[in-house]
Write a structure and sequence with these properties.
Length: 236
């Protein structure tokens, strides 16, 4: 009997194995104010189910889905640099959500909407198929201990879920500062049906100009740490 899970089994496993740790954290006054004032304007709820994002944003535009935006610095920078694009950003860490909301309010940006829950549930339940131009996964938890590798978000079922939500020609862009996780990402995505690696070498790409460099990343570069970017395009 085969040990390889069927797609349905893979989806069930992804529903039960969490790729993140819920961290409430302490909110600063600014973050709490951002949450109080910004959530009614920018927040979306999983319970609202499948969305028409043209109606949500009030326009048709290229649309990016970001999984785990941390404190929101990169999201804010990308949204400010590309006002003609829309961003659906998901994060479970409340201080990060508050920080991004505060930034959106202070910069008067209107091209970002936020979910504060499991990004995979949002993809499954709220995002129409073939509707996204990009999915971003920047510096996810590497779960570096062998016994925790099953918690890594990049798995075959994840690749298939993202493929369903991307338009043909849409791109999954991943970045990590853990070489072993980069190798894992490359291994999973290289055999995932319906994708093409945009790297001419069949491995990694140079850091794209549209991905902001974080303070953490710049510090790592000074210390000689590497960062690996991967882009896989949906081809069918």
């Amino acid at each position: 009997m085969s040990d390889i899970p069927t797609p349905a089994e893979g989806q069930r496993r992804m529903r039960t194995i969490k790729s993140f740790v819920m961290r409430a954290g302490r909110m600063t006054e600014g973050q709490q104010r951002g949450l109080d004032q910004g959530w009614p304007r920018f927040g979306l709820e999983l319970a609202d189910g499948l969305q028409n994002f043209d109606e949500v944003f009030g326009r048709q535009a290229p649309r990016t889905f970001e999984i785990g935006f941390g404190m929101g610095h990169s999201t804010l920078e990308m949204a400010a640099a590309a006002p003609e694009q829309d961003f659906i950003a998901v994060e479970v860490h409340s201080p990060g959500v508050g920080a991004l909301l505060s930034g959106l309010l202070s910069q008067d940006l209107n091209n970002v909407r936020i979910y504060s829950c499991d990004a995979l549930e949002v993809l499954r339940e709220c995002v129409p198929d073939a509707s996204l131009d990009r999915v971003l996964l920047f510096f996810p938890d590497p779960w570096h201990k062998s016994r925790h590798h099953k918690r890594r978000i990049v798995q075959p079922a994840f690749a298939e879920l993202v493929r369903q939500k991307l338009k043909v020609g849409g791109v999954l862009h991943m970045a990590t500062d853990w070489e072993a996780y980069a190798e894992h990402m490359l291994e999973v995505m290289s055999v995932a049906p319906g994708y093409r690696n945009q790297s001419t070498s069949g491995q990694y790409i140079e850091r794209p100009s549209e991905r902001p460099t974080t303070k953490f990343e710049r510090r790592g570069e000074r210390l000689g740490h590497g960062v690996w970017d991967l882009k896989f395009e949906r081809i069918d």
